[in-house]
Amino acid sequence: MVLADDAAAGFAALLARHAGIVRKIAATYCRDRDDRADLAQEIATALWQAFPRYDASRPFSTWMYRVAFNVAISHVRDASRRNRHSVPFDDALHDVAAPPVDDEAGQHAALLQRAIASLDPLNRALLVLYLDDHSHREIAEILGITETNVGTRVARLKERIRRELA
Hints:
Blueprint: H1 5-17, H2 19-29, H3 33-50, H4 60-84, H5 91-94, H6 104-117, H7 121-131, H8 136-143, H9 147-165
Helix pairs in contact: 2-3, 2-4, 3-4, 4-8, 7-9, 8-9
């Protein structure tokens, strides 16, 4: 896909300004550093390909979240399919223990990260957006669900996480 130089420069500036979104989503859906880098690249490529269809009258970050989450969820589904049909050569090579956490805040953060990692892709996306202080309306727009559904899911997620952290 070829964009005019000014459009390409505009895209590059927007991507640079909102690069934290890409990093955050990649980190939320991939634990391994190389996998995160691959997913971030997939997201950037998808954003580039979809940029000609971006409606500049809407917030770029909202559009970016939507594209990025769609790519991340597809990535997780594809990885799940690949993993069902593969057998690791040596399981011991893949068991990397997390470093020990000494302070109470670090322990709570580690528990929260595990709880988030255990969520299905849609609820993980919803929780990331909620923790970033997006409104229910913004979350609904990004994820393509209703505001009521966002509120219900957030309440259920809060309760589930409270139970898991208790």
